[in-house]
Structures are given as C-alpha cells and as structure tokens.
C-alpha cells in the first residue's frame, strides 16, 4: 500500500502547491520581442475556439474580434496573447444587445487566450501545461489607461508610435511623459514569475489564470462560489446565488459556464451562469426533480422526475425540453454507455431498467431487475452496467452490448451509492446500513474486496491514487489505495479526521441514494475538498498528510454538495490555451506566461480600459459612483431611498429599467442585479424577473444587519456593474421594525 506520512510534501491551494523545483537555474525566462499581432485575416484559417464552445463541436462559430493582441518570440516559439469577448450572445452578436465592446474594460469578464506555435513552421505546439498571470504595471493608471478606446488613438497614429503601443491603445503622449512604467526586463520578468509561483501574499497578480472556484450547494436555497486565495488563511466569497427553492443535486457543464440544479417544491431546474454568478433561467420539468446528469458529449441534460414517473431531457445550449420520457415510479438514477449512445434509467419502485437511445431519445428496451434499485453505474471499459438493489442486497450485473442481465452478486441489504473508479475496472458499492463497502471486479462480476470498519459510508470520490469514502456517521474520510485493489488482500483503510462533528449531526439530511456529493478532487489530482455540514466548513486535504491542511469557511451555511470549477488555462484547440478571467482595474498590464516544454517564461502586455466608475465609489454619500449616466440606459428604483429591510426576512426589490429611443427594450436576461454590503464582505447577485411595462423585480434576503447598496447593470449595452448609480439599503436586526418602503 502507498504510505501516507507526515513527511510528505504538502501544498495548499493552487499557487501554494505549485512547486518551485522545476523553476530552477536552467529555466529560461525573459520578456522576448514584442510585436503587434494583427487580427486574423485569412478566411480559410481555422478560427480559435473559446471555452464556451468546447462541448459544442458540431456548431462552430466565427471567433469574436480580439479586444487586445500582442506577441513575443522566444526559444523557437511564437506566443500570441489576446483578450476576447466572452461570446457573441453576450457581446452583441446574436442577442441583439448592441455592438461588441471595443475595449477590455476594468471589472469585466473576458477570455484570455494564448496561441503558441512553432516560430519557423507555424505549427501549433500541443500538450503544454502553461501557467499565466496578469499584473498591473506601476504607474499604469495615468493617461495610458484613460486614453484607451480599443484601437489606435489618433494621436498615436499621427505620432508614429511603435506598433506594440498602438495595439495596446497607449498614446504617444503617455509614452513620452513616462506615465506608464517600462516593460520588465528579463530579470524582472523572472522575478515576478518566481514570486507568483511562491504564492507570496506580498506579491500577488491582479489576474490569476491558474485558479479554481468552489461551488457549494447549501441546505437553504443558495449556492456559494468561494474563490481561494494564495493561502488557505484567506478566502473570498465570490458570490451567493439565490435559487427559487432548496437545491437537491447539481452538476457542472464541461464548458464550465453553466451549473444545473434541481429544485424542490415544483421549482424545476435552475440554470446558473457561473461567469456572472446568477440564475440564467428556470426550466419547468416534471414533478419532484431529483438527480441531474449531463450526457458525455455535453449536449443534453437529463433530469429524473421522481414524482411523475418521467425523465426530462433538456438541450444544454437552448435549455429547451427536448423530450419527456415515461419511465417507472420512484427515484431515478441515470448512467450512460457507449460514450453517451445509450442512457440507462432506474426506477426504485419499478421492476425494470429502461434503456434509451442517447441521440434519438427513442426507447431501446427494458430489462427486468426487480424492485428496489437505488443507484446505477456503467463502465465502457468492462462493457457492463451495475445496478444496486437496496432491498434485496444485491448488485445486478447488466451486459451493455446485449442489454441483458449477466449475473447477480449477493451482498447485504441496505445498499446505497454505487460508482465505478475512473479506469472502469472496479465498482464501489456502499452500504451505510452494514457499515461496509463491497469492491466488485467489473471484468469478472465477483466481489474483489470487502472494506469494513466504516461508519455509514454514503459517498465516494476518486483521485488518481485513492478512493475517498465519506463516513456519514463519523467525522472522518477513509482513503483506499487504488493501486492495491488488484491484489488478493483487501487494502487497509487510512482514516483522516475531518471536522468536529459527523455529517449526521447537521440539520440537512441526504436525499435518495445519497444525492449529496460532499467530496471533490482538487484540480491537481493530489487531494480533495470535503464539505462538513455539521461544522459549516470546507476542509482541504492533500495526499501525504495525516490531517487536512486547511479549512475554508462556508459563511454560516451548511454545504451539502461540493464541486470544483477549474478556471485554469486549457488547450481548447491545437496550440490554443484559454480561460475566462475577470479583469482588474484599468491600466497597463504585464502578462506573465510560464511554459513547461521548453521551460520558458515570457512577459507580454495588455491594456485594460477603466470602467466609468468602480462599484465601491460613492460609499460616503450613498449617491452611487458619481460618473456620467450611461447613454440610453435608465434604472429607477420603485422603492423609497434609504429603504430599511430586516435581516433574515425576504424582500422583493422592484425597479424600472428603460432604454433610450431607437434601442430595443430591455429584457430580464439583459439585466444583472448586485447587492453589496459595505464596507466589505457579502455580495449577492440575482437574476431579475420581468413584471411588464419595463418593471422588474428581484428577491433578496439580507443575511445580517448593516449598510448595503443595490446596483443594477446592463453589460450588453455598455453599462457594467458600477456604471449606473447605486441605491442605499439599510438592514436592521430581525424584529426591529424594519421600514418596508415599497420594497416588498
């Protein structure tokens, strides 16, 4: 068995566990030669794909025009950096929201994209693992930032300024006056990358392209997005998403742009925009939606409706319900075989497993397995499907090709969750009643090992080296060495204490077949995050340690389920590495890139245009940012100024949003609403609901007494968050006689 010792190397969050060892003396770091990179003009060239299009290969789109581009050449590589709009729908193309922005604006979300090719042949360089950052240059908020307009300023063109300056939108006057510091030389570039790799709090980039977000599904009707900083001692609650009802289960789309959450109380399926941190739409499905899964190709979302014997199949892009499939009664679980060509659907109170064609959505047949199946898992590698029958205490082995029962494995009654390991060799059948886990060999259908000594195991997650089993009845997670599963002896359990109280002590209780997913692997694959609802905390564990290395707060909520949204650079097309980032303040930026093959570090550059005003401005007088109003956009609150609300009591905030003459009327999808608590801390983002005649409303429950600001934004019309005046809100303690003031 692989030993877990206290002497193992341990790192914390991404940036803290990125090793410095491979950034040694042999690493070639430098700034290289900067040039302006013109926009692609070859109509036959294959356009780069943004992350949003990864899961939609059959619907290619013309790439958005770059907001910024620059290039360096070093060590035989040509490296281009571009900032691009998120997508055509948000930036004006298909949705009719107006013209695409001409500049990368402070505080906005954009796609950061590196294109790496062979400098001699132009061939894409594939299979890299790049790390990227953006750091604001000292003196960057002078005339250079103010003069940026997305193209070359007239003064720059007239003066004959260098091409790189024109591409970045910096005026010749700025260059001559020294308002912006010079680009870093090779030594400075090397030093900045070393500092970012070390995770020093004293030297932090404004934009980190190697980050990830933690999404928690809480016991109330909220989702939390937590952004870990470079050390585990500091975290940032990025946003809290209010749902129309308590969430049951959730899943992240492979493109990392949408979360799908099933809701109790007939509220359907919530589609959450992960970029903006708000509900994009609520999709009506059947009664009591429970399990939600995404097909392997990312095109469809499947929802089991436990209350009406159906499964809803939804188009992931349009959110239209493609078909409602009649299945059996009771709770439904769904698994896919053949890369998604067939969907296998269980019905706990039915006698059969239904098999449906994943493309045509037509039934392929039913397989009699007996009443009581609570979970199902599939392995394309083994060509089998395993279904756990809790009442009978058996696992039914189904032949995926023949769609027939191949065998039955007798275990103990009380089975719960069932899952195959990533290689598809072994399935883990958890039994919280018998306090054990049966490990089945997918090739033979026999029990390979029985793991005992557990405390109501109800969830399992895998990394490259270990299986992580959550003990619902104890404050610990049990690790199983996956490399030892092929041996004759059962691998011993390594128990890691997590938290102070067992999950059973929490107010929230797991749903059917352990719908909660309380453990999520770290993006590096060398550890996991564990949600502890009893402690209202998240624990970070790195393999090689005997205890978690850090704790992240859940901000007073009980986290039931957890998943990780990896926002690091990914190869989206051959030689093209991209991710979505949120830009910092306006000004000139150095863009630092570190490659693993060859070990090369380079510094490029970009310019971010200032926002009309920052969301925090105007705090003293409560009158908003103080900037000029955005042309043709007007937001008028329909509640009294200085409205007082009560902590913990829901309120409905109504407002009127209008566009000027000649522009299309505003829809609810165009508008974002944010409520910020001052001076720092809580941020709420919500999707407004249209009430007709230009009136909109958003439901908001303030968590604690204090001073708040209501901000509305229309990003597609050039009014990002902070560009429109804010409205002050006062929240009193509950029961203190809050003044309604038309807000409810």
TrEMBL record:
Q: Where is the composition biased (Low complexity)?
A: 51-69
Gene3D superfamilies recorded:
YVTN repeat-like/Quinoprotein amine dehydrogenase (2.130.10.10)
User: What is the superkingdom listed in this entry's lineage?
Assistant: Bacteria
InterPro entries with a match to the protein in the record: Filamin/ABP280_repeat-like, Haem_d1_sf, Host-pathogen_enzymatic-act, WD40/YVTN_repeat-like_dom_sf
Tell me the segments the record calls region Disordered. Answer: 34-71
SUPFAM superfamilies tied to this protein: C-terminal (heme d1) domain of cytochrome cd1-nitrite reductase
PANTHER family in the record: DIHYDRO-HEME D1 DEHYDROGENASE (PTHR47197:SF3), PROTEIN NIRF (PTHR47197)
UniProt name for this protein = YncE family protein
